Amino acid sequence: EAGVAQSPRYKIIEKRQSVAFWCNPISGHATLYWYQQILGQGPKLLIQFQNNGVVDDSQLPKDRFSAERLKGVDSTLKIQPAKLEDSAVYLCASSPSGGASGNTIYFGEGSWLTVV
Amino acid sequence: GDSVTQMEGPVTLSEEAFLTINCTYTATGYPSLFWYVQYPGEGLQLLLKATKADDKGSNKGFEATYRKETTSFHLEKGSVQVSDSAVYFCALIPSGGYQKVTFGTGTKLQVIP
After folding, report:
1. What is the pLDDT of residues A1-36, one digit of tens each?
2. Cβ neighbours of A53 in B, within 8 Å
3. In this complex, which of B43, B89, B93 lies closest to A42 when CB atoms are compared?
4. Pick from B37, B86, B84, B87: which is nearest to B61 by CA?
5. Are the C-beta atoms of residues B109 and B13 closer than 8 Å to each other?
6. 3-state DSSP call for residue A52?
7. How far is CA A115 from CA A16, A50, A83, A90, B109, in A?
């Protein structure tokens, strides 16, 4: 079974530039998550999709971050304009649908962003 | 709201030592509990999980038991190896509703030869 795919793996940009990350979840998984992980900290949920609807985006800085999930499958996370404090790993994850407790959440390798 | 508390690291052990990483949680009902591991430069990998009280999750020599009475899910391994050096995250998913994951802050483990 293919895992969660993310690209690019690494990106270096200057502040005020824009960047986009792409995620392809595991086939058939209805729930898709984007997390931000700053070095030395635990992952922080940015946005959670159920199919192509947003379930939770309460911690997404909407003035600069946006995300969409095309046709309930792939997803893109965009940052525009980037700030130095956005330097982090952006983790995409997916899990099966239904909301049943116990379903495992599977993570991609992450997209490592450095803003200089 | 839900929360997960892990022991602070870093934890430094000699090879073949016994490992315990404490994790306690606060949640209503019966959440599912997970341990994830993150090796340097990689994403999070599921290590083990338990979905109901008294369940024991195990994988690669690691074990954790879901203790409802103490709201704990401590990670243990009898004999650590250098290759176990990583950051370990305890996490929970509440019962019912959408699967919002709550993570602990992570515990860095360093195993020295």
Report:
1. 679 999 999 999 999 999 999 999 999 898 999 999
2. none
3. B89
4. B84
5. yes
6. coil
7. 9, 30, 7, 13, 28
The C-alpha atoms of residue B75 and residue B54 are separated, in whole angstroms, by: 14
Tokens read off for A5:
């795919």
Residue length, chain B?
113
Question: Nearest-CA residue of chain A relative to B44?
Answer: A107
Neighboring chain B residues of A48 at a CB cutoff of 8 Å:
98, 100
Give the tokens for residue B30: 């019966």
Nearest to A52 by CA among A74, A79, A35, A24: A74
The answer to whether the CB of B91 falls within 8 A of the CB of B34 is: yes
The mean pLDDT of chain A is: 91
- Chain position carrying tokens 């004999």: B79
Which pair of tokens denotes residue B77? Answer: 């391994």
